[in-house]
Fold this protein.
Amino acid sequence: MTHVEPGAAEPLVATRPASSPAVPASSARAVAAPADDWQSAFFTLDHGTATLAGALVGRVDRRWRLLAAAALPAGSNPDTLLGLLVDRLRSADPARAEAIGGGPGRGSEPLAAWPRLVATSVPAATLAVIAATERTRARLEEAAVGAGWNTVAGSAERTDPLALTRLATRPGVVALLVGVADPPDADERDLAAELAVAAAGIAARRPGMRIFLAGPVPEAPLLDAWRAPVIVRLPAPAGAPGELAASTLRAALAAARGGPDDSRRALAPVAGSLARVLGLRVEILEIGVSGAARVVASPSPADDGGIAASVQIVEVPDAALFRMDRPGSVDRIDYWFTQSLDRARLRDRLAELAVAPWSDLDADGALLRAAALRGAVERLLAATDPVLGHGGVDLVIGAGGAWSAVPAPAAAHIVADVVRRPGAVQVAIDHARLLGPIGTIADDAGRDALVAGLGEDLLLPLGTIVTPRGLRPNRPAGRLVLETGGARSEVELVAGGFTLVDLAPGASGTAELAFRGTTELGPRGRRFQVAVSGGLAGLLLDLRDIPLRLPERPDRRRELLGTWERALWPERDA
Amino acid sequence: MTGWLELVPARALIVPRPRIRLELQPGDRVTAVVGEAVHVGEVLAERIRDPRLVEAPVPRDGADQGIPLPGTWLPGEHALAGRRAGAPAGELLFEHGGRRRLASGPHPDRLHAPADGRVVDVEPGVALVLEIDGPGLAATELLGEPHWGRLVILPEESDPRLALDVALAGAVVVLPSRVDAEALARARAMGVRGAVVASLAERDRRDLAASSARQEAGLQRLAPFGVLVLGGYLRRVFAAAVRSTFDAASGAVVGLVGDPPLLLLPADRHLPLPEPDHIVVRGGPEAGREGRWLGPGGIRRVRGGITAETGLVALDDGRTVAIPIGELERFALVVANG
């Protein structure tokens, strides 16, 4: 493993400039990864469930730069999309296009010579989980859900063989997970063999169905079954509930589900690269139409003096953007929605968006997406906090198409509304959908070099959110002194709302916060000095309650939320 | 300029000779044979109602012809006084510990072929796969059960609650106007076998599902009834290409199936197909309008502050407008076998 020098001294979204031209390395997984010094440009493609995103990255002044990017609905032709990017570059900067080898030509044909980094989002498929006991079923199901599967589950302890067979053969089920503990619990020993025979009966009905055996489940009955099944041996379920992140079974199930180019899984390696390159604790909140994931990566000193990164990823299919089949999910979207809409109409519009995510783009359709995104992030955090914790990170990144469906400053507001943690955090979004494709590069050194080389083009900085806890609402809370680029400004703080300070992308500085009472901002105290960086939203001083308390009455709640929303999203009423 | 047409996502319109799956459950008794040609309305399987799990001892050596595989239909065995218990007829789930687990129960219902075709596969207790002779019109969802009937198109301005009467018994009706659960319940009560709608609201879907569940729980069930939804949940009109397909198939026997969701059309009708650059606007202020693709319209900001890639469309009313590509769709005229 190659390590990159830390950049912890600069708490900026932008990466350190690379000391030498960064060259992405070849990769066994990313077949078309740019590999040679002579390579002048490459494409990235992220095939999402709802969105096809493409980007053109080229070498400019011995650095990798993002030259063009676009997103279209899934189903659009990727070659045509890449051709559009090349055509745009030719129109905007013919000399640059010529320099990187994309000279005059017809625009609708992409250049075949340029390699492609491709990531594909794999929709959460349904896995039937059957176990001997309820205890083991719970552990298996937890691991499967954390690996991004939708599940239907039963145990021999509670469910008869006919019901188990019907459960595993219902439409949409693509794989079967049969498991017992290792060694089997006392009440599992007798049932393990019968479970294997029942699985064989299911396999005989479903040719081609993948069978995962976790723990000492005998496979002989399956091998005897009609139409040989595809059997994959997995580790037995281990550990207590809540040890999900470290589960080897979960990792194996995730690998079996997604494949090497799964864009959601690819966020884990690229988060590690970001942590190593930036020297920051990085959190990625990925929200998609077919699933969601949360990744936390922390840098740490490596044995060889460099920087290593520990990365944890948990997928949460239930946090998919428009998923409404869980109790209360529509209520939460209604809670965050700043327009009044009757419940039946709200359900219809959300259901339509689940079918056609790119429809209803304008007017209050964007507000509805923002509300759905808040609901999805809430579900994601609620499902992953017990595993990943809710400790402070330095940089929160919004990834997935959902974050690009609202204006960038509004995305910062969404993070502020839902990620309620005392402290200061930078916020950015993966605007060009580069993270997934870059994450498919298997080689850490090559990926780190590309992340460093792309620098500030990789992410769109939204700004810094500072969220103190312990202020008394609607009272003067203290004073902010912001020093940036030699300029100094002072702002009086009033608890209970937002204070927005312009801080342009690329700008950085120091914020000195002097509160009237003892306040929590990570540590507790009255005076704090925080390094801040700018972005499209600037510096957000979020002086609202933690957790956020909103009026119970819907009209008052909408009015208050609308006031905050309007501050960061003035076009919402246009 | 139409070289950029493929920026617009294509939606399937017609699927030639589709392969469809008819759902089975353990205990259903399949009467069709793989490779056999079937005609619309023919019985393919006897459906179990209220299946139950039965345990029976494995017969002594020689009593069976070989070792039955899971999914095999086993005839009933009579009890022999003082020697062994009998077993009802049923489908074998598996054998273990000298005992068989069977899915057994009465079979009062029938599964019929929804169109002419050929049986290509039987997955016992899971699905029966047919290859259909004619093409299928792509839809998004079938609510209810597969069925077939004569295609009747109701007038666009008609109120379905008034237009649906017993004269339509046995038909599959196209409902171009606003449809709700009440209209669908009336259609079912009038003996209509199925309905084709452009969209259906979530509340009406739930009402329909509840109505179907009540019917299934009853001793005297009504005939199967299916609602084929061509779009989503918000009110839409049928696209011109879809209306032309209905017109071409009007009066013929058509089928409704859910896996994949299709309206199965007769093989002998000529189906008019739209021009390749024909565009349908599926959302936004121009929703429902159609036109011709002119080319990319660049990145534009729409109401609400979102920026999106747009396309230029010459609408049928003579205007040329830039519309977000996400709001557009075109028809892939022929797609791979479903």
Residues 213 and 501 of chain A are 56 Å apart (CA to CA). Residues 364-388 of chain A form the longest helix (25 residues).
